[in-house]
Amino acid sequence: MPQASQSARPERQGYVLLAPALIVYLLFAVYPMIDVIRMSFSSWNGLSPEANFVGLANYRAIFTQDPVFWGALRNTIWWTTLAVTLPNLVSFGLALALNQNIPGKSGLRVVFYLPVIIASIAVATIWKWMYDPFFGLFNNLLMQFGLDGWILDWLGDRKVALWSVFVAHLWQSVGFSMVLFLAGLQGVSATLVEAARIDGAGRWGVFRYVTLPALKPTLMVVFVLSLINSLKAFDIVYGMTGGGPAQSTQMLAMWAYTQSMQLGVFGRGAAVSVVLLLITLVIVLPYIRWMFRREEMSR
């Protein structure tokens, strides 16, 4: 009995230390999520004292009557696909380069990470100015180089607006993944690398059989964070285009906000949020389970 009580004491201490953070998480994350799910089955304009239960009417409305929802879903899928691949490929290349003994690498790390600490709305303002069709940096540079035929209304043309906003997102997000990859690369065992070189492995062999397997936990973290952040893309798109022109850059997260806070249709906005939540869970949870199973099998 004394041994059992001694072993249970650290466990109780752990729960006591965890309790404040758990209470905050339940209060500000779990409860609002449950409340949004509840609201998605209701009709409420944000002012009435009571919300009317309408069942699945909000979901039927966004799937069958909302002309913007499917375009926002398509844009979100494109944005997520690009955001999970291109920025991470660039950041991985930068991490590999800045992990070498090159002069000024500390300063370069700071330069590449600097956009991450700038608020997204400030990034949107900077890039919105650079994309300005009359006074912007890009069109002025094209004029100076005699490339007048390449001048575009970068944020006013439906064909290029989404890609123009994504370039700004790429510029801001590369540094974050780069730091995570750098941390993973610096955790690769130097002994294993040296042993691989002694066995005759070249740079590609060391990368494929030593570096890449050691980076699996980092790759999982980067993938999941990139996926979640891209699915809830809002600030930079809102700051640069507001979903325009003609809803061509509209995203699910921003459409949920527009439905609720601007149109006053909180039930439909909540329904869009729930759809976005389900998409995130369907993609992220199986991937995390698959990665954990692979780690257990490799042990």
Structural commentary:
It is a multi-pass membrane protein. It comes from Xaviernesmea rhizosphaerae. The protein has 299 residues and is an all-alpha fold. Helix content is 73%, strand content 1%. It contains 13 helices and two strands. A two-stranded antiparallel ribbon has the order 1-2. Helix 2 (57-64) crosses helix 13, helix 3 packs antiparallel against helix 10 and helix 5 (120-130) crosses helix 7 (161-186). It is globular, with a radius of gyration of 24 Å. The mean pLDDT is 87.
Features:
299 residues; mainly alpha; two-stranded antiparallel ribbon; 13 helices; 73% helix; globular
- Give the amount of beta strand, in percent: under 5%
State the secondary-structure class: mainly alpha
Count the helices. How many? 13
Largest sheet: 2 strands, antiparallel
Task: Please state the average pLDDT score.
Answer: 87
Can you summarize this structure?
The protein is an all-alpha fold. The protein has helices at residues 2-39, 57-64, 69-98, 105-113, 120-130, 137-144, 161-186, 190-198, 203-214, 216-231, 235-240, 252-262, 266-298, and strands at residues 42-43, 52-53.
Question: How would the blueprint of this fold be written?
Answer:
Blueprint: H1 2-39, E1 42-43, E2 52-53, H2 57-64, H3 69-98, H4 105-113, H5 120-130, H6 137-144, H7 161-186, H8 190-198, H9 203-214, H10 216-231, H11 235-240, H12 252-262, H13 266-298
Antiparallel strand pairs: 1-2
Helix pairs in contact: 2-13, 3-7, 3-10, 5-7, 7-10, 8-9, 10-13, 12-13
